[in-house]
Amino acid sequence: MTPLRKADGAARSDMTTVAPPLGRSDTTPTPGAPETLAVRSMFDRIAPRYDVINRLLSAGTDVRWRRRAVDALALPPGARVLDLCTGTADLLVEALGRDGTRRGLGLDLSTAMLARASAKLERAHLTARAGLAAGDAQRLPVQDGAFDGALVAFGIRNVGDPAAALGELRRVLRPGGRLVVLEFSTPRGLFGVLFGAYSRHVLPRVGGWISGDRGAYAYLPASVARFASPVQLGALMEAAGFTAVRWQPLTGGIAHVFEGTRR
């Protein structure tokens, strides 16, 4: 059974589909209130160098963070996994690579990101167990209760209505299903001051130089500064219908990993 819903005029014959066009915009999203079309356009623009920049700017730490997120999901063999805001599918590859009986779906707004995700899944020999779909996190083109677990890495703050996205994640998870969210946060103390300077001054310059889109990499620290605190995001998860919600700081609070169970 396919987990994709037959709706909105998109093809649903298998696990890989492309949703109807959402339109184009050449603007950068508004930090704290990101517009869907602007988010899609921004990620389409930076997709060609996205992985390279991530590894460089984080010194490879993002790889360890994703492994920690999959550890926290703690799914049994044979589970079905949704990777929301999949980007180039790093998290989906990690999740499916842990167990040869798992199946998964990566969903993202950006078709340019999904093109690179498709190539990555093929290189990892995972195409038989993984699908990709284009769509909006606030209106997931997925059947109710289709998944045993869901992951979101560095994507929830790029959604205009995070509460709506969390509600959709609850809908597509079976009762007892697991949700893990990996998201940037603002460190405290002296480390926070130093990291803030790096984020505001170094990150936009380096990311902009490599990608050719400085605005996109200026948006990153600005969006983190305006996003919910860990306590607030945990409360949003609880309000959306998740229990046993907890979170843990990573690398001095640069990021947090959140986990919860669908009621």
Specify the overall morphology. globular
Instruction: Give me the number of helical elements.
Output: 9
**Widest sheet: strand order?**
3-2-1-4-5-7-6
Instruction: Please report which band the strand proportion falls in: under 5%, 5-15%, 15-25%, 25-35%, 35-45% or over 45%.
Output: 15-25%
Helix fraction by DSSP (H/I, runs of at least 4): 40-55%
List keywords for this structure.
single chain; 263 residues; alpha/beta; Rossmann fold; 7-stranded mixed beta sheet; 7 strands; globular
Describe what you observe in this structure.
The chain has helices at about 35-45, 50-60, 60-75, 90-95, 110-125, 160-170, 190-210, 215-225, 230-240; strands at about 80-85, 105-110, 130-135, 145-155, 175-185, 240-250, 255-260. It is an alpha/beta fold. It has a domain at about 35-185 and about 230-260: Vaccinia Virus protein VP39 (Rossmann fold, 3-Layer(aba) Sandwich).
Short characterization:
With 263 residues, the protein is an alpha/beta fold. It contains nine helices and seven strands.
Topology summary:
Elements: H1 36-46, H2 50-58, H3 61-73, E1 80-84, H4 90-97, E2 103-108, H5 111-123, E3 130-134, E4 147-153, H6 162-172, E5 173-184, H7 189-211, H8 214-226, H9 230-240, E6 242-250, E7 255-262
Parallel strand pairs: 1-2, 1-4, 2-3, 4-5
Antiparallel strand pairs: 5-7, 6-7
